[in-house]
Amino acid sequence: MNISIRPVATALFVIFFSSALLERAQAGSGNYYPPVADKLTQDECGSCHMAYPAALLPGSSWRKIMSGLEQHFGDDASLDPASTSHITRYLVDNAADAAGTRHTRKMMRGVDTTNAPMRITELPKWISEHREISPREWRRKDVASKANCTACHIDASKGYFEDD
Amino acid sequence: MNSVFRSDSVALPHHPATLNDASIQPWQPKNGTPDKDSLVKALSRIFIVISGAIIASAVQAGPREELLDRYAREAKASEAAFSAFSSRSGEALHIARHATGKPDTPSCTACHGDDPRRPGQTKTGKSIDPMAVSVSQSRYTDAAKVEKWFRRNCTEVLGRACTPREKGDWLTYMISQ
């Protein structure tokens, strides 16, 4: 066996480096949150507002939200029990603090999971990312509400929340 | 010409002959050359059967009609004076400003907009497809979905559940639009 170590090491290094780069690109320099991949969740949550990526809130928040759909931020968003439990499971399994969602761990910084926030806009990370947005911009007619991510983040439905 | 079309000239798959009948050689007449006419004939029969099925299913009540029937039965059961749904009453319900629901949704049009053929917008800024069937053709074909939204939105706008008559009137209006 006469394999020189250098080309192998170089190849390994290149593969490692490029995969790390690719991962970073996919993560959209840290502003990528995988869009909802479950059809029922997409349909039901997405009929009044954008179906927010599960990784934007911890599982305890999703549980709290899904157990009070009759009074969902002032609206009746109630569902049949089977749909409710299906959607809850999807959201919790893909939540910000679920296993294997390390891209979005940063969303959890400073979040008290024992007293789970009900709104994405209450997360310290969300607040700091939006600190430069003026009240006038929030009042724009096409924005309508802080719940309307896609008004400014044009690729939000694909999971990208860049500074647009 | 007619002789070519005589049904005994070829055994079609539906022919009542038994399976061990040597004459059953579909698409192959006795002289061994492909019989175009019999193929055409068979295909035309298939075509007639399929188009007949399509027409039959079109004549059958669609999901919207079934839903209207259901509301009509419910309306009749709850009020003896009920005779038929009215598109005009549905329109009135749709545009009226009710003072009994939530302040930010006094009417259906608060979110759905004044023209049912144009998109609306939720309070969170999301676009809502037009409610008129002429524009949104797949609307009101899923009874559970229709009921889900009546349940939610009647509470929001009227502060109570809608009656079967109100549902039927409103649906009739949207179908007419």
Description:
The complex is a heterodimer of chains A (164) and B (177). Chain A is mostly helical and 164 residues long. In chain A, 37% of the residues lie in helices and 0% in strands. Chain A is built from six helices and no strands. The termini of chain A are far apart. Chain B has 177 residues and is mostly helical. Helices cover 46% and strands 2% of the residues of chain B. Chain B contains six helices and two strands. Chain B is elongated. The model of chain B is unreliable at 1-13 and 15-19 (pLDDT under 50).
Secondary-structure topology with pairs:
The complex is a heterodimer of chains A (164) and B (177).
Chain A (H helix, E strand, L loop, with lengths): L4 H22 L12 H7 L13 H8 L14 H13 L30 H6 L5 H4 L26
Chain B lengths: L35 H24 L3 H16 L8 H9 L13 H4 L7 E2 L5 E2 L14 H16 L5 H13 L1
Antiparallel strand pairs in B: 1-2
Helix pairs in contact in B: 2-6, 3-6
Descriptive terms for the model:
A: 164 residues; 2 domains; B: 177 residues; mainly alpha; Cytochrome Bc1 Complex, Chain D, domain 2; 6 helices; 2 strands; 46% helix
Brief summary:
With 164 residues, chain A is mainly α.
Q: Which radius of gyration of chain B do the C-alpha atoms yield? A: 27 Å
Euclidean distance between termini CA atoms of chain A:
56 Å
Number of helices of chain B: 6
Give the uncertain stretches of chain A in residue-range form.
none
Globally, the shape of chain B reads elongated
Q: Unreliable segments of chain B (pLDDT under 50, ≥5 consecutive)?
A: 1-13, 15-19
Strand content of chain B: under 5%
The CATH topology label of the largest domain in chain B is: Cytochrome Bc1 Complex, Chain D, domain 2
Shape of chain A: globular
- Which structural class best describes the helix and strand composition of chain B? mainly alpha
Largest sheet descriptor of chain A: none
